[in-house]
Prior knowledge:
Elements: E1 5-11, H1 14-26, E2 31-35, E3 46-51, H2 55-64
Antiparallel strand pairs: 1-3, 2-3
Amino acid sequence: MEKNWKKIWSTTNLIEAEIIKQMLLENDVHAVLMNKQISPYNFGTVELYVHEQQADAALRLMADNDDVA
Length: 69
């Protein structure tokens, strides 16, 4: 992964992570997921990363949309 990315959240629910990522992208926050789950059992986590400069904005958006996260 490139420099200047910051992990801001992790979960075991891939679908929830995808929803949050999409919400961030729709609000011009560049976000990527790193899926660390072991298939086919889905053990492990999915981590959400954003650029360091957008971390505060991403966390605010997530807090404002707490029904999403």
